[in-house]
Design brief:
Elements (H helix, E strand, L loop, with lengths): L7 E4 L6 E2 L13 E6 L4 E5 L2 E6 L4 E6 L4 E3 L2 E7 L2 E3 L6 E4 H9 L5 H25 L3 H10 L2 E10 L5 E12 L4 E11 L6 E6 L2 H9 L10 H15 L9 E6 L2 E6 L6
Parallel strand pairs: 2-9
Antiparallel strand pairs: 1-5, 3-4, 3-14, 4-15, 5-6, 7-8, 8-11, 9-10, 11-12, 12-13, 15-16
Helix pairs in contact: 1-2
């Protein structure tokens, strides 16, 4: 008979944290709203800042604020989902996606090679981390993990090329299973290398935004008023999911020659 869960769960929605016992098992939640808008001469990134800390026994959440948009030199990245796994007994960090993605970026490889390295490395690490957890989960927890929260992690990266063209890649890792086995399936969600067309990419909890944009597409993407438009869009998602998505909203704009925060939480600066 498989062990029932007893652990402390910490989840920053998007910069997520999970703490699980050595015996394994996780209860997942989802959140984070991250928008990336690409124009000919700029990349705009906006996100919410809500962080949740959850105790799995009481099922009660505590909330804080945290940054979900990072950069190292000229590569800007966002990591959302369950990104940190901590042993509650030893307090040791078993998995820290933010740090591991940063370590890969610091190798200094070209943008596409950095993506390829990160794509494969994180797939391997997620399997390595979740194997003992899933193998010792109760049937109830396995059902919750696979059916309620199948997307474990999503990552986006952006920068400008040597030709001063925007580049952007967004991918995710999903849990899949059959009656006898499970796997982690990486999926390329959105990509634009040396982009020539304007576009908007939605990462995380964005169903309200997606519904709105389907009815009211951005006819043109202009830097004028972009900050306000992004804030309005994320506020739509906050209105729908106030338990998971929350203020403050941060906005960053990236150019070929630099970047700046237009609104930022202190944890981002």
């Amino acid at each position: 008979m498989k062990t029932k869960l007893l652990f402390v769960l910490l989840i920053p929605f998007g910069a997520g944290v999970v703490a699980a016992q050595k015996k394994g098992g996780v209860i997942m939640e989802h959140g984070s709203t991250i928008l990336t808008v690409i124009s000919n001469d700029s990349i705009w990134i906006a996100s919410d800042s809500k962080v949740s800390v959850r105790n799995s026994e009481s099922r009660k959440n505590k909330y804080a604020k945290g940054c979900k948009v990072f950069n190292y030199q000229n590569i800007h990245y966002s990591v959302s989902g369950t990104t940190r796994l901590q042993d509650p007994d030893t307090k040791g960090i078993l998995f820290d996606a933010d740090k591991e993605v940063l370590d890969i970026i610091k190798k200094g490889k070209p943008f596409v090679e950095t993506f390829a390295d990160c794509y494969k490395t994180m797939e391997h690490r997620l399997f390595e981390v979740y194997k003992p957890i899933i193998n010792s989960c109760s049937d109830e927890d396995i059902h919750y993990l696979f059916d309620y929260h199948p997307v474990l992690l999503s990552i986006s990266m952006s920068m400008f090329s040597d030709k001063n063209k925007p580049m952007y890649i967004y991918w995710a890792y999903k849990l899949e299973h059959t009656a006898k086995e499970w796997s982690i399936q990486p999926t390329l969600v959105d990509t634009c290398i040396e982009c020539t067309a304007n576009q908007i990419s939605l990462q995380g909890a964005t169903d309200s935004i997606n519904t709105y944009l389907n009815k009211n597409p951005l006819a043109t993407i202009s830097n004028i008023g972009m900050r306000e438009r992004l804030i309005d869009l994320i506020n739509m998602q906050i209105a729908k999911d106030p338990a998971e998505i929350g203020l403050p909203i941060v906005v960053k704009v990236i150019y070929a020659k630099g970047n700046k925060w237009l609104t930022a939480h202190k944890s981002c600066e």
